Amino acid sequence: MRQTNKVFHLAIPCKDLDETVNFYEKLGCQLARRYSDRVTFDFFGDQVVCHLSPENIDKHPTMYPRHFGVTFLDKEEYNQTLELATSQELPFFKKPTVRFEGKREEHMTFFLVDPANNLLEFKYYHDASMAY
């Protein structure tokens, strides 16, 4: 279970700092720092650092095995993020769907793709105990 005195950190490649900042700010993330070779965001309470590394961009991303994102414990926050992504016309990699329908681990999910083809998943479990 998450403890409030810890912040998860993830570093990912990006190909252009300006378009990266534009995407993540439209998603509602706060820009924390910017340098000539990276940008750091408050990504829903955790830290995502996008390192300028155009030679490391996945040209043909797939959802599995590599993606990252947020598991919401509040359905309204999930819905607000989905509405924001839609209204900001952020690119969907996979439109909203329900996985494992009828099972305890049933959850709502959608995937976005950032400008460097990093895949972001957002999901909400109807049974919060399934988040871990």
UniProtKB/TrEMBL annotation:
<protein>
    <submittedName>
        <fullName>VOC family protein</fullName>
    </submittedName>
</protein>
<dbReference type="InterPro" id="IPR037523">
    <property type="entry name" value="VOC_core"/>
</dbReference>
<dbReference type="InterPro" id="IPR029068">
    <property type="entry name" value="Glyas_Bleomycin-R_OHBP_Dase"/>
</dbReference>
<feature type="domain" description="VOC">
    <location>
        <begin position="6"/>
        <end position="125"/>
    </location>
</feature>
<dbReference type="Pfam" id="PF00903">
    <property type="entry name" value="Glyoxalase"/>
</dbReference>
<dbReference type="InterPro" id="IPR004360">
    <property type="entry name" value="Glyas_Fos-R_dOase_dom"/>
</dbReference>
